[in-house]
Amino acid sequence: MSRTGADGPGTATVSxxxxxxxxxxxRWWILAVIGxxxxxxxxxxxxxxxALPSAQKDLGFSDGDRQWVITxxxxxFGSLLxxxxxxxxxxxxxxxxxxxVVGFAGASALGGAAGSFEILVTARAGQGLFGxxxxxxALSLLTTTFTDPKERANAFGVYGAIAGAGGAIGxxxxxxxxxxxxWRWTLYVNLAFAGVAFVGGALLLRRTARDxxxxxxxxxxxxxxxGLFGLVYGFANAESHDWSSPQTWGWLVAGAAxxxxxxxxxxxxxxxxxxxxxxxxRNRGASFIAVLISGAGMFGVFLFLTYYLQQSLGxxxxxxxxxxxxxxxxxxxTSTLASSVLLxxxxxxxxxxLGMGLxxxxxxxxxxxxxxxxxxxxxxxxxxxxxxxxxxxxPPAMSLAVAGVDAKDSGxxxxxxxxxxxxxxxxxxxxxxxxxxxAATDYLAGKNxxxxxxxxxxxxxxxxxxxxxxxxxxxxxxxxxxxxYRRGVPEHDPxxxxxxxx
Length: 502
Prior knowledge:
Strand order of the largest sheet: 1-2
Strand content: under 5%
Distance between the termini: 22 Å
Radius of gyration: 22 Å
Structural class: mainly alpha
CATH superfamily of the largest domain: MFS general substrate transporter like domains
Number of helices: 15
Largest sheet: 2 strands, antiparallel
CATH topology of the largest domain: Growth Hormone, Chain: A
Order of helices and strands: EHHHHHHHHHHHHHHHE
Shape: globular
């Protein structure tokens, strides 16, 4: 039986699963339950960003450490998502879904009650781990619940809308909760979502048969998880140990070696986590790279622009959440245009590079932001341009990353593209945070660090550095997408699994 997997604002591929059973009577209520669970997972990709300055002030962790609150979630989610799909196959989708919901709620409660930075990061990693169980199980349950093709399309349309709006909802909800209650409620709020999802899931979901042919690729999961952690930890260590230290390059080399070993193992494993045939198509390979790069650049923008708005300009958390909405609006406009008009008519080769270029231009624009920048004249235009660019990159890349795969590979292809976005965010956040804090340290050399004006300018140097390097990432993405994408409109395979856009 095919499976699906996604983490939210990505693309899910659903393979037709014929069923002789009649569809559940309460299937639309099941959609609501699964939608609530998915919203909970998607929210946590952005809701904590707005609360992070308040959490840092409360728990007293350093600028160099703050990245781990974001990275711990994305790294655990991205590296375990493929394994989560296999576990859902092996142990049953209903039980995996319910365990994922309960575990996510428990990790959220731990994070909300955290009295130290270490506990908060542990809780965030726990959220990512259980989210990696929950997301693929949820999509598989939708596939098996809605067996009529028309109903299934409608169900996944609703699900996709929930997933797509989750990032914007997270920014706003994070601002409201942080400002009017406390940053801890950005984590506690998950208990309400989880309670609804668990009760509804326990009452409404059918038990699904275990796939006895499924097998867990434990060596593959250990290799890819260890490799990704090595890369992220190496980039993070560069801030405190510099690039020549074994604590930096040693971890980077170890991470690269483990990922190379993972690649070799996937060619020999009887049940590979990531069948390499999925990566061999040129358009698909280009799309995975595009999603990885855009994830790295995009996560950095959310993190550093949040700090700039709150700490440099004095925005409240709610004002910060509202400030990001035009970026989301621009992304949604070009996303629709790219998916429905441009990609079917001219193909990805002009579209994705244009999006990369616009995103890079928006980030270069942000490097000029200072303590006197106004929202309408300076911040808004750069955000809109960046959003317009991301909308031209993400939907085409995510669609082509899973288009044309065999039905048996649809689940793993979907999980992979979403894992790429999370992994890109993990590596990008670690790298950009290291470069930013190093820039601030260099600026403070020989100056009075207690002078508020000097501190403010050091922060601006850090933010500007992060925007420049994010722009460099998108420029690399532009070059890669120009070289790798094929010319023309991609051919449609009528026998391939249908694609559902998130």
